[in-house]
């Protein structure tokens, strides 16, 4: 229930009539939209929710315990049944350690919620991991010690948390209405879904290409390369990936996925807190959390290892802190404290996702609108400290990217920064999603969702049909707190959609609008209680039926949950390239780069993945430029590649034929084949048979006879060709020569050069020529710092020699 008399819209007033008109208009639009809608088929996620609701309801009735306690017990049983108890323990210890660390950093202020402590601790741990990633020091023992240190030093706080949890378990269900209990059961049922989907093996594209690739790479190599030439996203803000890396180091893939789901559930708690802060009742707080958890996009964020849930958690906490830096907070000292907290939390958000830069101007406007509230004694010092917190928490990835690539937001805006690692054009998002906000944006988000995300109709959730009514009710109610939340949510969506209309980038707005929806619809003085419950029930049911509309990954497969054999069979059927990664690792014992001509889903690979895509433009261009099998093999060997992963169905036939010509099949899973580069020695020289002079440079007066394809040279007038080499590899340098006039000596010569083109050393062997064509060879090893070699067709004296072929083979 809202706090003040001004927040109430009296029945039958003009304001109330306006709200009803908007509601009726939204209903008409909704009915039309549903008439165009094809009913979604029942999916595994919907079935899981229904089973969870039935089970939770039965347990609640028979035990009399609070649903949340029963939910924790049920999840513990599920973790044992699915053999995931260790990842659950690691994630729980990580959360506890974060809470203790955050409480210590914030000086144990009692007014701050535990969720803020957790986020401050998680952001700090993630920042430290990001810094440690530059060095080869990332081992499980280090992260185990890192997490245990706060728990040991803060053992009293750990004991108090354990005691409080024990009291909650022993307590009976507190006095609450049947509606509140029912809402708790539904919330807990969605929590079961989010945890179960985290127990499933990862099959998501973004996760396997990046968000799980980074933790697995860090665990295997003990450091991250920050090589934007190999992975274009290597220097992007990755605070969430560093957080996932901590638990991955200790408990693997499931722990990372579980921590992602935990952030989504944490968001539901934050939405509850914001609803209560805005004047909502305990019931409206539950409705807000449930609306959010039932949203298909929220489920999509947990169905695969994404970063938006962690990013939104930092954004929500930072936004609430900004809103508290106002006259809403009576104590001026508390306002300044919240300003400091906002700087730190928004810095963590900035280090997680660069889209934060689109939202910060909106929060700055809110802050300026309340400048009278925080313009008090000590504000200069607070602003300085808050700015320092924002910079320390958020600037590291941008400074690193600027130093390593020349572009602090690489690869974006490269038309401005001109990094040599990317073309001098701005990196553009997919044109599929469009830009800007139009009068029908909300309708299209609901009924034409593929225009806004890689999903199906309904991906945005159906609460957007009720948002205009809720927004008008809030505007007319005079609830200033709700108005601020509405302004931040709408402003963030507008500024972000100005760049690209993509739903994942406005996930914080989804959370904020959940609060806006719950405030008026759960207030009996605005809407009749029966109407509000009916609207809420229809919304939750519809969202649940379309729960998988925003993702192609959120399947719940019992056999994959309950046994390793079922898990392997599920991956073999659903995504065989994941099984192929294990095969590659078993064969690629030297951890050499692997050329990948398939989807970039190589998380867990023991070595670098060379993607012939925009992930690695240099390698893509090299591959595209290879016109013959020998040239392609040469480029692969220069990259030290022995193994190739090829999707036989995705490549053009001409490119596929080249790859098949230079390699031999070792294993095949579905359409994905693992092949080994043939051991045949491949020629590095262009025109080794001297069919033309392309590639060769002659010194006058040396001569070339095109009819006979013969070079005539001596020691003063050699012909040369420069080719790239790989340090440490062995090459065979051979020539076919004879005397041009009289007997003399010839030479085989290779001059080694470094990356700057400076001379390193030379390899020379001499031979005596005859009047007959003879072949002479020299085996050489490229020096450690050599990147190229100059091959000579030369005599050893002033007497001329004739050459009909030269070779430089690997």
From TrEMBL:
A GO CC annotation given for this chain: membrane
Membrane topology designation: Multi-pass membrane protein
Main location: membrane
Subcellular location as annotated: Endomembrane system
Residue intervals passing through the bilayer: 12-33, 45-63, 69-102, 114-135, 141-158, 179-200, 231-251, 340-371, 383-404, 457-476, 505-524
Keyword RNA-binding: no
Superkingdom, taxonomy of origin: Bacteria
Coiled-coil segments: none
Pfam families: PMT
Designated name of the protein: Phospholipid carrier-dependent glycosyltransferase
């Amino acid at each position: 229930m809202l706090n003040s008399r001004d927040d109430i819209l009296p029945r039958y007033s003009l304001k109330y009539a306006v709200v009803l008109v908007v509601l009726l208009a939204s209903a008409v639009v909704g009915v039309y939209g549903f008439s165009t809608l094809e009913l979604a088929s029942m999916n595994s996620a919907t079935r899981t929710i229904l089973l969870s609701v039935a089970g939770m309801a039965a347990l609640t009735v028979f035990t009399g315990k609070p649903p949340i306690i029963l939910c924790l017990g049920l999840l513990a049983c599920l973790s044992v049944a699915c053999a995931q108890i260790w990842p659950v323990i690691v994630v729980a210890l990580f959360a506890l350690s974060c809470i203790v660390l955050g409480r210590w950093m914030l000086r144990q202020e009692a007014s701050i919620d535990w969720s803020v402590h957790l986020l401050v601790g998680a952001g700090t741990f993630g920042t430290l991991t990001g810094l440690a990633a530059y060095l080869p020091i990332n081992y499980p023992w280090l992260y185990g010690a890192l997490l245990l240190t706060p728990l040991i030093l803060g053992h009293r706080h750990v004991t108090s948390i354990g005691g409080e949890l024990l009291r909650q378990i022993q307590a009976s269900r507190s006095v609450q209405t049947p509606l509140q209990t029912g809402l708790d059961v539904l919330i807990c049922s969605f929590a079961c879904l989010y945890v179960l989907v985290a127990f499933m093996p990862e099959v998501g594209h973004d996760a396997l290409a990046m968000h799980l690739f980074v933790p697995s790479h860090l665990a295997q190599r003990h450091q991250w390369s920050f090589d934007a030439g190999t992975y274009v996203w290597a220097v992007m803000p990755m605070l969430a990936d560093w957080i996932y890396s901590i638990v991955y180091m200790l408990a693997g893939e499931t722990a990372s996925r579980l921590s992602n789901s935990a952030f989504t559930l944490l968001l539901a708690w934050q939405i509850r807190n914001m609803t209560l802060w805005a004047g909502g009742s305990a019931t409206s707080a539950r409705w807000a959390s449930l609306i959010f958890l039932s949203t298909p996009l929220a489920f999509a964020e947990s169905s695969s290892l994404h970063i938006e849930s962690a990013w939104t958690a930092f954004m929500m906490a930072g936004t609430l802190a900004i809103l508290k830096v106002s006259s809403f907070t009576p104590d001026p000292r508390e306002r300044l404290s919240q300003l400091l907290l906002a700087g730190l939390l928004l810095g963590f958000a900035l280090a997680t996702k660069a889209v934060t830069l689109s939202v910060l101007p909106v929060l700055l406007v809110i802050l300026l609108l309340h400048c009278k509230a925080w313009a008090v004694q000590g504000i200069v010092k607070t602003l300085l400290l808050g700015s320092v917190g924002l910079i320390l928490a958020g600037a590291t990835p941008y400074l690193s990217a600027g130093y390593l690539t020349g572009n602090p937001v690489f690869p974006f805006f490269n038309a401005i920064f001109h990094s040599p690692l990317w073309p001098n054009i701005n990196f553009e998002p997919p044109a599929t999603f469009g830009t800007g906000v139009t009068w029908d944006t909300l309708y299209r988000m609901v009924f034409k969702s593929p225009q806004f995300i890689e999903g199906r109709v309904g991906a945005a959730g159906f609460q957007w049909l009720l948002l205009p009514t809720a927004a008008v009710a809030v505007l007319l109610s005079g609830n200033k707190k709700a108005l601020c939340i509405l302004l931040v949510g709408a402003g963030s969506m507008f500024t972000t959609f100005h760049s690209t209309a993509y739903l994942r980038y406005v996930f914080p707005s989804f959370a904020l609008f959940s609060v806006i929806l719950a405030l008026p619809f759960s207030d009996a003085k605005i809407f009749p209680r029966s109407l509000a419950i009916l609207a809420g029930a229809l919304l939750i049911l519809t969202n649940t039926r379309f729960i998988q509309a925003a993702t192609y990954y959120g399947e719940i497969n019992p056999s994959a949950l309950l046994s390793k054999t079922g898990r392997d069979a599920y991956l073999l059927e659903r995504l065989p390239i994941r099984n192929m990664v294990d095969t590659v690792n078993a064969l690629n014992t030297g951890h050499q780069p692997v050329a990948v001509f398939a989807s970039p889903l190589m998380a867990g690979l023991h070595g670098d993945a060379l993607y012939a895509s925009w992930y690695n433009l240099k390698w893509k261009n090299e591959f595209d430029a290879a016109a013959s099998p020998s040239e392609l093999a040469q480029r692969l060997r220069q990259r030290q590649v022995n193994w190739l992963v090829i999707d036989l169905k995705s490549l053009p036939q001409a490119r596929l034929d080249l790859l098949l010509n230079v390699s031999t099949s070792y294993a095949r899973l579905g359409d994905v084949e693992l092949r080994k580069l043939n051991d045949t020695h491949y020629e590095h020289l262009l025109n080794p048979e001297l069919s033309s002079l392309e590639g060769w440079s002659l010194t006058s007066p040396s001569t070339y006879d095109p009819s006979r394809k013969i070079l005539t040279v001596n020691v003063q007038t050699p012909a040369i060709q420069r080719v790239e080499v790989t340090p440490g590899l062995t090459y065979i340098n051979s020539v076919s020569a004879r005397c041009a006039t009289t007997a003399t000596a010839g030479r085989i010569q290779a001059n080694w050069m470094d990356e700057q083109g400076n001379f390193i050393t030379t390899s020379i062997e001499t031979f005596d020529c005859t009047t007959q064509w003879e072949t002479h060879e020299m085996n050489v090893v490229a020096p450690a710092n050599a990147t190229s070699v100059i091959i000579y067709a030369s005599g050893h004296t002033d007497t001329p020699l004739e050459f009909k072929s030269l070779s430089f083979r690997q």
